[in-house]
Design brief:
The protein has 415 residues and is α+β, with helices and mostly antiparallel strands. It folds into 2 domains: 199 residues, Beta-Lactamase (2-Layer Sandwich); 203 residues, Nucleotide cyclase, GGDEF domain (Alpha-Beta Plaits), CATH 3.30.70. Helix content is 41%, strand content 28%. The protein is built from 13 helices and 16 strands. Strands 9, 10, 11, 12, 13, 14, 15 and 16 form an 8-stranded mixed beta sheet that branches. Strand 10 and strand 11 form a beta hairpin. Helix 1 runs antiparallel to helix 2, helix 7 crosses helix 8 and helix 10 runs antiparallel to helix 11. The longest helix is centred in the middle third of the chain and has 35 residues. About 1% of the residues have low confidence.
């Protein structure tokens, strides 16, 4: 719905100008909601409770929702996960907002003092019992649809922001109040869209290349060859036996299996302050930077703790899978430390923000040694130097690594 700004009352002009400035200034969504509500109340529209929900593009979240009240300010900041249609919460299934999204209803108005107007939505009865007198909602499209080929896969494709407004005013909202909301809320939706685009850029970039890499890219590190030397602990992981499993397992359960094992690695790495930079088929590359915020020994300890936690998680997963009659895999991890180049590599039009250099290659070669030594965790001598003698790792002797000129001393967990 496009607002008609003709004859906008003087009281609403400060609201409109604040929204324009907030949208240009990249104000956070929660600040947009609280600021909008406060300005609208000051302009004379008697808001009591406001909900604003906004769609997002995030691997885990379908939308974010914010609830504001006149007495409590922002009282709700809810992340709404992706769900299967059969797994939606009962309260949401019975919600008038879901009805609007599913039926593509752009506006819904229900006077709460009229029992016949609220009988089909339980939440409106609850609002009436709380003394609220009117409920008004609007839905605004961001122009987005989510498609897979020719088939729209999102149940509420095209909806960007949905908002509802209640009042305690005797007689509910006046026609003037509703007209003014129809003018102002689309401006809020436009500012929210600007804020959500920024947030989605951060979320999606972080999901695909890692949090720190995303921060660097979105702050301008986008030219091919733009890289810097950094010291880092490299964690290189691989699933032993995956290739053989892939030969006999259908693609759908194979992907589910791979994700289940990656779920053992990702949270452990992130909890230790590391970041997953790249998935390499059935393996991954992660880093723990030595950037001065923690001592080298603290970084080494965190990386080793993450590796152990991942191996423990795999052990628990394998126990569950064995009990269910599902195939199990072993996880092999190598820990190495050294100087790497961190930045952009690729073609002129397709770049990857990652780690490159001999240190990364040597970590890969070290991981390849896990099978031969029948160990699930191996560490290099350079890693041991920062982790310290209390790390609980013992020498396994000197071994040749493919492509590395000199033999390297290798360490593993004490058995």
């Amino acid at each position: 719905m496009i607002p008609n700004t003709e004859h906008m009352p003087a009281s609403d002009i400060p609201v409109a100008m604040w929204l324009v400035k907030a949208g240009l200034d990249d104000v956070a969504p929660e600040t947009l909601v609280t600021g909008f509500c406060s300005h609208v109340v000051t302009a004379g529209i008697p808001l009591q409770r406001v909900f604003v929900g906004m769609a997002t593009l995030h691997p885990l979240l379908r939308a974010r929702g914010y609830t504001w009240t006149q007495t409590g300010g922002l009282i709700g900041n809810e992340a709404m996960p992706h769900r299967d249609p059969d797994d939606e919460p009962e309260a949401w299934v019975a919600s008038p907002l879901r009805h609007m999204l599913a039926k593509e209803v752009p506006e819904l108005h229900r006077p709460l003092t009229r029992p016949e107007a609220i009988g089909d939505f339980p939440v409106l009865k609850e609002f009436a019992e709380q003394g609220l007198t009117d409920w008004f909602a609007m839905a605004h499209s961001f122009g987005w649809t989510f498609e897979n080929g020719r088939h729209v896969t999102d149940r509420y494709a095209g909806i960007g922001m949905i908002s509802s407004f209640t009042t305690m005013r005797a007689g509910g909202f006046s026609e003037d109040h509703l007209t003014r909301l129809r003018r102002l809320v689309p401006l809020l939706a436009l500012a929210v869209k600007a804020a959500m685009l920024t947030q989605m850029s951060r979320d999606l970039t972080a999901a695909y290349i890692g949090g720190d890499a995303a921060h660097r890219v979105l702050n301008g590190a986008i030219r091919r060859g733009q890289a810097e030397r950094i010291e880092a602990v490299i964690l290189y992981a691989d699933l032993r036996g995956f290739t053989a499993l892939a030969d006999r397992l259908a693609i759908e359960p194979l992907v589910e299996t791979l994700n289940a094992y990656f779920d053992c690695l990702g949270p452990a790495i992130e909890a230790g302050g590391g970041q997953v930079l790249k998935f390499l088929g059935d393996g991954l590359l992660a880093s723990f930077q030595l950037d001065g915020r923690r001592s080298p020994q603290e970084v080494g300890t965190a990386a080793l703790r993450a590796a152990r936690a991942a191996l423990d998680a795999v052990q628990a997963l394998n126990a569950d899978r064995s009990a269910a009659g599902l195939p199990v895999l072993a996880l092999d991890i190598a820990l190495h430390e050294g100087l790497v180049m961190y930045g952009n590599v690729g073609t002129g039009a397709r770049l990857d923000f990652t780690l490159i250099g001999p240190t990364v290659n040597e970590a890969s070669r070290l991981e390849n040694l896990c099978t031969a030594l029948d160990r699930n965790l191996l560490a290099s001598e350079t890693f041991m130097r920062i982790a310290g003698s209390g790390a609980g790792l013992v020498s396994l002797g000197r071994h040749a690594l493919r492509g590395v000129a000199e033999m390297r001393e290798v360490f593993g967990l004490a058995q």
